[in-house]
Amino acid sequence: MSENPKKKAGPLARLPRGFADRGPAEIAATNAMLETIRKVYELYGFEAVETPAFEFTDALGKFLPDQDRPNEGVFSLQDDDEQWLSLRYDLTAPLARYVAENFDALAKPYRSYRAGYVFRNEKPGPGRFRQFMQFDADTVGSATPAADAEICMMAADTMEALGIQRGDYVVRINNRKVLDGVLEAIGLGGDDNAGKRLTVLRAIDKLDKFGPEGVGLLLGPGRKDESGDFTKGAGLDEPAISRVLAFTAAKGADAQTTLANLDRVVDGFERAAAGVGELRTMAGLFAAGGYGEDRIVIDPSVVRGLEYYTGPVYEVELTFPVTNDEGQVVRFGSVAGGGRYDGLIARFRGEEVPAAGFSIGVSRLAAALKSLGKLDAAAIPGPIVVLVMDKDRVADYQAMVTELRRAGIRAEIYLGSSGMKAQMKYADRRGAPAVIIQGSNELAAGEVMIKDLVAGAEAAKSITDNAEWRAARPAQFAAPRAGLVQAIQDLLSKS
């Protein structure tokens, strides 16, 4: 007798690198956080808009996050009409396209917010995902630095609405006009130097990590890290490096000292001086609004990595220490950032349209809130489970479920084929607060039996023998069938 042929293997169940599944507890906690953010944004007069995950590739522009990767940092495909489409890598480029396409129909300044997943074709690693969620807010059509100041104040209010106390976060602001003026002064102006400017920006962005000495190497010949990997530098000479580092070191004990230091650094350079003037205006608005330097500070080391920023830039940094999985004390660092991008919409319209906005990294902020105990990651309560004791009475059990649902109570009928013991185990795994039982005896008495699984689990901790368990019948009680809904409502109100 020949052996049966082996069953053909199907595809291997595996998750692509850089992506993550999310369960109900994480989803519920994240949704609660998003709702809090949304309420703050709407308090400031921002309104929701949603754009699709795909855009025409040319609409995303040249300002891509990881230009040394295939597809320049984005995931792309060619449509059947030979048009190239790409998954959005942020929420700002799609907004620029949306505003340009609907420009005449929108009230301006146009204030909008949107949340959604973005996708980056980058090398994944610890805490570095290819798909992650952002929550953005932008003002389009206002050239005044008051629009930037408002976004910074809203960012501060958002952190506190989420339960992050004053002193555990700071909104740090700078102005790219100041840095761009410094770069022009050392010969890095114009389109021909765009690549080198980006290298300088990325170097300055590492100031907290590597310090002035490490950044100086990245501005000059390059830097070798502890593992021996070498990062090529911007190739600046010593006077140019000194000037850039002097700019980043201009932060003083208070806003007025910082602004005075910047005045000296940019003396004689009109564009840079205009940037300092905008920072001075913003500082006055913060003071008028009651936002002290314990919440918002001017910090010349903030640069933001993307080239499209044209004025004020800002970051929200969490300053409280946490202990990581290796037992090391670390800080979360930046969880949000943005700035002014007056040239982005001009790509579509051929004329400059002022715009400013910022983006919250949802997953990173959620992790921070969880570490503070400010994010309830517990699973949402499971449904009431109606057990199927007699298979020929499914309609009766379905009627119970329907009554509970109409009363706004999560409920389900057991749809498997197992017996009572397995059904109880199922209810436990679903996190059900209670089960409803009606066998022939309960039916004859016009009752239902309700097992309070939460109270039962607590009572069981103090019961050590089966006889005691049977005598106690913990958290189990009968209720009239007609009073089922009221009995469950009373039970849930006590939990």
From TrEMBL:
<feature type="binding site">
    <location>
        <position position="134"/>
    </location>
    <ligand>
        <name>L-histidine</name>
    </ligand>
</feature>
<feature type="binding site">
    <location>
        <begin position="90"/>
        <end position="92"/>
    </location>
    <ligand>
        <name>L-histidine</name>
    </ligand>
</feature>
<keyword id="KW-0067">ATP-binding</keyword>
<dbReference type="InterPro" id="IPR015807">
    <property type="entry name" value="His-tRNA-ligase"/>
</dbReference>
<dbReference type="InterPro" id="IPR036621">
    <property type="entry name" value="Anticodon-bd_dom_sf"/>
</dbReference>
<protein>
    <recommendedName>
        <fullName>Histidine--tRNA ligase</fullName>
        <ecNumber>6.1.1.21</ecNumber>
    </recommendedName>
</protein>
<dbReference type="GO" id="GO:0005524">
    <property type="term" value="F:ATP binding"/>
</dbReference>
<keyword id="KW-0963">Cytoplasm</keyword>
<dbReference type="InterPro" id="IPR041715">
    <property type="entry name" value="HisRS-like_core"/>
</dbReference>
<dbReference type="GO" id="GO:0004821">
    <property type="term" value="F:histidine-tRNA ligase activity"/>
</dbReference>
<dbReference type="Pfam" id="PF03129">
    <property type="entry name" value="HGTP_anticodon"/>
</dbReference>
<dbReference type="InterPro" id="IPR006195">
    <property type="entry name" value="aa-tRNA-synth_II"/>
</dbReference>
<keyword id="KW-0547">Nucleotide-binding</keyword>
<feature type="domain" description="Aminoacyl-transfer RNA synthetases class-II family profile">
    <location>
        <begin position="31"/>
        <end position="381"/>
    </location>
</feature>
<dbReference type="GO" id="GO:0006427">
    <property type="term" value="P:histidyl-tRNA aminoacylation"/>
</dbReference>
<dbReference type="InterPro" id="IPR004154">
    <property type="entry name" value="Anticodon-bd"/>
</dbReference>
<keyword id="KW-0648">Protein biosynthesis</keyword>
<keyword id="KW-0436">Ligase</keyword>
<dbReference type="GO" id="GO:0005737">
    <property type="term" value="C:cytoplasm"/>
</dbReference>
<feature type="binding site">
    <location>
        <position position="120"/>
    </location>
    <ligand>
        <name>L-histidine</name>
    </ligand>
</feature>
<dbReference type="Pfam" id="PF13393">
    <property type="entry name" value="tRNA-synt_His"/>
</dbReference>
<feature type="binding site">
    <location>
        <position position="138"/>
    </location>
    <ligand>
        <name>L-histidine</name>
    </ligand>
</feature>
<feature type="binding site">
    <location>
        <begin position="308"/>
        <end position="309"/>
    </location>
    <ligand>
        <name>L-histidine</name>
    </ligand>
</feature>
<comment type="similarity">
    <text>Belongs to the class-II aminoacyl-tRNA synthetase family.</text>
</comment>
<comment type="subunit">
    <text>Homodimer.</text>
</comment>
<feature type="binding site">
    <location>
        <position position="304"/>
    </location>
    <ligand>
        <name>L-histidine</name>
    </ligand>
</feature>
<dbReference type="InterPro" id="IPR004516">
    <property type="entry name" value="HisRS/HisZ"/>
</dbReference>
<dbReference type="InterPro" id="IPR033656">
    <property type="entry name" value="HisRS_anticodon"/>
</dbReference>
<keyword id="KW-0030">Aminoacyl-tRNA synthetase</keyword>
<dbReference type="InterPro" id="IPR045864">
    <property type="entry name" value="aa-tRNA-synth_II/BPL/LPL"/>
</dbReference>
